[in-house]
């Protein structure tokens, strides 16, 4: 789980409560042509079950420590599902590419050349604030929104930038 450093509550009306959640954590996403593996450092209690289940995939002596092309996908899937902490998650890619586009302050999901989703953030004095995440309803239920949020979180983490969110979906992913 993300360590929530502080939660700020802004205007509360009858219809909307706006929250900003700050976090400090490491989130990583690893992909091959078919699957996406998510790793949340806050949830990981290092049981090593993933390493035991698929040592060619999970190896903490190597960078990146997760490499998805060393074994068949079913072996990776079984290892991830055996994670007792829930720090690892896995989804099919469904042929969708997620790209981080810093010049447009977003991560974007594409089905070929067609833009089908985005996670938008604003640069502020204190870091980045995710304010909008949306995926075309035709592509819903495939984990694309989660991939979009993780893409922004990972880019921010690699640059040492703090992330907050006002987007309700991003807040959910960050908690």
Could you describe the 3D structure shown?
The protein is α+β, with helices and mostly antiparallel strands and 175 residues long. It folds into 2 domains: 102 residues, Aminopeptidase (3-Layer(aba) Sandwich); 64 residues, Alpha-Beta Plaits. Helices cover 21% and strands 39% of the residues. The chain has 4 helices and 10 strands. Strands 6-7-8-9-10 form a 5-stranded mixed sheet, with helices on one face. The longest helix is centred in the C-terminal third of the chain and has 16 residues. It is globular.
Mean of residue pLDDT values: 87
Order of helices and strands: EEEEHHEEEEEHEH
The total domain count is 2
In CATH, the architecture of the largest domain is 3-Layer(aba) Sandwich
Name the overall outline: globular
Q: Any idea of the CATH topology of the largest domain?
A: Aminopeptidase
- Number of strand segments: 10
CATH H level, superfamily name of the largest domain: Gcn5-related N-acetyltransferase (GNAT)
**Fraction of helical residues:** 10-25%
Identify the strand order in the major beta sheet: 6-7-8-9-10
Which CATH class of the largest domain is shown?
Answer: Alpha Beta
Radius of gyration: 17 Å
Per-chain topology:
Elements: E1 3-12, E2 17-24, E3 27-31, E4 35-40, H1 49-53, H2 73-81, E5 88-92, E6 97-101, E7 106-111, E8 114-124, E9 127-135, H3 144-159, E10 163-165, H4 168-174
Parallel strand pairs: 9-10
Antiparallel strand pairs: 1-2, 3-4, 4-5, 6-7, 7-8, 8-9
List descriptors.
Aminopeptidase; 175 residues; five-stranded mixed sheet; single chain; disordered N terminus; 4 helices; Alpha-Beta Plaits; 2 domains
